[in-house]
Amino acid sequence: MRGTSLSFSTCGTLTLLAFVSVIFFPWPLTIMLAFTSSFFIPLLPLAIGLFADTLYYTPHSGTLPLFTLYGALAAGVSIFVHRQLRTGIIGR
Amino acid sequence: MKKTFLVKRNGLLSLTDVSWGVFALACAIIVLLVRLIAPGFFWYVFTPVFRVADAVSLEGHSFISGFENAAKLTAQNERLANENTALANENQALAQKIIDIEDLFTSTTAKSGILAGVVARPPESPYDTLVLAAGENAGITLGMEAFGDGGVPLGIVSSVLADFSRVTLFSAPGVTTAGWVGNDGLAITISGAGAGVMNATVSRSAAIAVGDTVFAPGPGMLPIGKVIRIDSNPTAPGVTLRIQPALNLFSVSWVTIRDTGVPFSISATSTP
Hints:
The complex is a heterodimer.
Chain A: H1 8-24, H2 27-37, H3 44-56, H4 66-91
Helix pairs in contact in A: 1-2, 1-3, 3-4
Chain B: H1 2-12, H2 19-37, H3 39-65, H4 69-99, H5 101-105, H6 107-111, E1 114-120, E2 129-132, E3 145-147, E4 153-160, E5 165-169, E6 176-181, E7 186-194, E8 197-203, E9 213-217, E10 221-232, E11 238-245, E12 254-258
Antiparallel strand pairs in B: 1-2, 1-12, 2-5, 3-4, 3-12, 4-5, 6-7, 6-9, 7-8, 8-11, 9-10, 10-11
């Protein structure tokens, strides 16, 4: 298991750090970490969003599980960019 | 040469590349399933983790402030300011109770309450919520009101488990509360704006100034915050009050839960 251009251990550390940050760090830092990680691990923002909503989301009127939604959006964009990048390399 | 191209391509993306993401997603889904299937067990597991997070945060703060005396004095000043705010709020609440006849009738219920420790609070918990280490077994039910130091109303219990519960703060988006502002007790509707901030709209002719206290039903009138800014739009008939909570939500460690019987416009659910 390794990320796009990072080593196995670095990607693992990044994944672990992102999960830990949901509990230990303020949420803006978690968002920043998940967003940065998405360059290397596309599905990580979705996982982190799901985890954050699992811990903190309370369903009531007027609120949506925003972390999951934004995580899914970031993951989608990241996967799209990775595919475009791969196509570009193959096309050369 | 061809091999070089393949190595480069694999260097950017390969089937194994997504594995960390899949692994992370699988972990998140497993945690979600545990929460949905066994919510009590879930919070039993995560409460110690939250407590460790609190301890680490506290130690980190002490460690950093130990480097210089100024930082230590700042921390002490912050603590004293918080205590001062709590005492001032308590004083205001007591003064308001004296002039509020209705509060005299309900003073017996005001004394009772359930003390609950806060497991998670903003900014770690988004959505302006508090996770409490007390639930149904301690007598907490949906719709009860949470109070901080000095009897400051903080929010409403919106989710209850056997030993844990969650409080949606008045500053949470979608939460509206009937309240009063100023010395004259002008009735307003307080709306949560997220990130610990509340809004209210009043008529332009109302004599509201920055620094006026905002009250929420408690029993009686209890200070919930202060007007920190007044936004005026020439095209609108009213002005918007920006309200800062009376307590620093980032440092709330204990709350008192009471049933005040006051209805709030938040559709609480029993979903864990």
